[in-house]
Automatic annotation (TrEMBL):
GO terms for molecular function: D-arabinono-1,4-lactone oxidase activity; FAD binding; L-gulono-1,4-lactone dehydrogenase activity. The keyword Plastid does not apply. It comes from the Bacteria. Keywords: Oxidoreductase. This is FAD-binding protein. It comes from Jiangella aurantiaca. Residues 34-198 form the FAD-binding PCMH-type domain. GO terms for cellular component: membrane. The keyword Oxidoreductase applies.
Length: 438
């Protein structure tokens, strides 16, 4: 097991496979807006080592690929990453599932799945995140009919606070409470996901979608394809990413104009002004699901790389009103914004999911890396969205009053009971869980 002490200068190349840069980067999250308060990061190489570590450590939390902007993964105790547990991708073709090592990145899993003829139903905007970390915060892509990535989970194996390895399956009571668990129930070592036969996708981008049309024809726009995202900088640039599944014999060609927008004449980056080089192929060229559903390619920096993010998920019934409420703040938002993305997600039954009990529209903000400038604007957006019961994305930045957050999760009391069973001494607790879950 590798253990890195974080309260001393990082050692020089303790592990020949790791650079000094990689070691020191483990002190901060991907965006660099958070320095973890943990004293050590452990990377066990076997489940047995992990069980022993958990059982003897007073405060410990699982760390994924560090892509959360919030302090959801942080702790003043110790962190443990499952990224170096033996890699595992085991397809059960009869059950249509794959069991994977929890620390695997979606991009790596997807390529192997595709090689074997299978696919996941959806992916987030980037393939760089770990499966366990994404599932733990209800990470989502887009698509009226697509649940978030956690809805594909059919089973979990996790190490509980007492070091026991526990297996949970979808048909068991409380399973729906254990999937989106914010790291609060244990350290997940393996995840079983539903798979579907591999499919191809074509994506096209439309320039200059009128904002009025987004509000007037919201449902039509998001029902137009398997996955649709609308990006706007609230300062004149609005584009939409439209991703169609290619079914056998599909003779689809994109309309040159759609909803008042024009078909883009070249590849685009969702962030205005950024090069399209790091984006998955567009212009209607068919390609494998894993190389079209994310906006960004695995080998490159996703998004702009220098950013903060926030996102609020509102019930579909309120989507147009919520979009209108944000539009009224356009002049306040634009100066500190890189881009805003609007997506849709199907409802689910996972207790702490941002789409629990309702289909949602996600109003996402990629901010400039200016926390002081962003904070007051974020608070204004939160006030504007309060009447719509907006649930903040657990992994992104928000300042909503914790009591209000708690009110927006009807199964919170059930989750607290579950935590009491899995982690009676609060071994996996942290300030974030204390704040928002009580
Ligand atoms: C550039 C960028 C683009 C993004 N795009 C999207 C998007 O398209 N859609 C979206 O919804 N979100 C998006 N996000 C947010 C991101 O998907 C979430 O924050 C996600 O949780 C990050 O996963 P991670 O592996 O980095 O986990 P971390 O941030 O390291 O941890 C997140 C949570 O997972 C828990 N966790 C991690 N591993 C385990 C484990 N083995 N067992 C138990 N708990 C564990 C941690 O304790 C913590 O509570 C994006 C983030 C970035 C930086």
């Amino acid at each position: 097991m590798r253990s890195i002490l974080l309260d001393r200068p990082p050692p020089r190349r303790r592990d020949p496979g790791r650079t000094l840069l990689a070691v020191s980067a483990e002190r901060t999250n991907w965006a660099g807006n958070l320095t973890y308060g943990a004293t050590r990061v452990h990377t066990p190489s076997s489940v047995e080592e992990l069980q022993d570590l958990v059982a003897r450590t007073r405060r410990i939390r699982a760390l994924g690929s560090r892509h959360s902007f919030s302090d959801v993964a942080d702790t003043t105790g110790e962190l443990v990453s499952v990224a170096e547990l033996p890699p595992r991708v085991e397809v059960d073709a009869a059950a249509r599932t794959v069991t994977v090592a929890a620390g695997l990145r979606y991009g790596d899993l997807a390529e192997e799945l595709h090689r074997q003829g299978w696919a996941l139903h959806n992916l987030g905007s980037l393939p760089h995140i770990s499966v366990a970390g994404a599932v733990a915060t209800a990470t989502h892509g887009s698509g009226d009919g697509n649940g978030n990535l956690a809805t594909a989970v059919a089973g979990l194996q996790l190490v509980r606070a007492d070091g026991e390895l526990v297996t949970l399956r979808r048909d068991e009571p409380d399973f729906a409470g254990a999937v989106v668990a914010l790291g609060g129930l244990g350290v997940v070592v393996a995840v079983t996901l539903d798979v579907v036969p591999a499919f191809d996708v074509r994506q096209v981008v439309y320039d200059d979608l009128p904002l009025d049309t987004v509000a007037e024809r919201f449902d039509e726009i998001f029902a137009a394809a398997y996955s649709v995202s609308v990006f706007t900088d609230w300062a004149g640039t609005t584009r939409s990413w439209v991703k169609h599944r290619v079914e056998d014999g599909d003779g689809w060609t994109p309309d040159p104009a759609w909803m008042g927008a024009r078909l883009a004449d070249g590849p685009r980056n969702p962030v205005p002004g950024m090069p399209a080089l790091n984006c998955t192929e567009q212009l209607g060229v068919a390609g494998p699901w894993y190389d079209r559903l994310p906006h960004f390619r695995l080998g490159f920096t996703p998004s702009s790389g220098e950013e903060l993010q926030s996102e609020f998920l509102v019930a579909r019934d309120h989507a147009v009103e919520a979009f209108g409420a944000v539009a009224k703040l356009a002049d306040r938002i634009a100066p500190v914004l890189q881009v805003c993305e609007v997506r849709t997600v199907a409802g689910d039954d996972l207790w702490l999911s941002s789409s629990y009990g309702r289909g949602v529209a996600g109003l996402h903000f990629t901010w400039t890396k200016d926390p002081e400038g962003v904070r007051p604007v974020l608070a204004e957006i939160e006030r504007a969205l309060a009447p719509y019961d907006a649930r903040p994305h657990w992994g992104k930045l928000f300042t909503v009053d914790p009591a209000q957050v708690r009110e927006r999760y009807p199964r919170l009391a059930d989750f607290r009971r579950l935590r009491g069973e899995y982690d009676p001494d609060g071994r996996f607790g942290n300030a974030f869980l204390h704040r928002y879950l009580g």
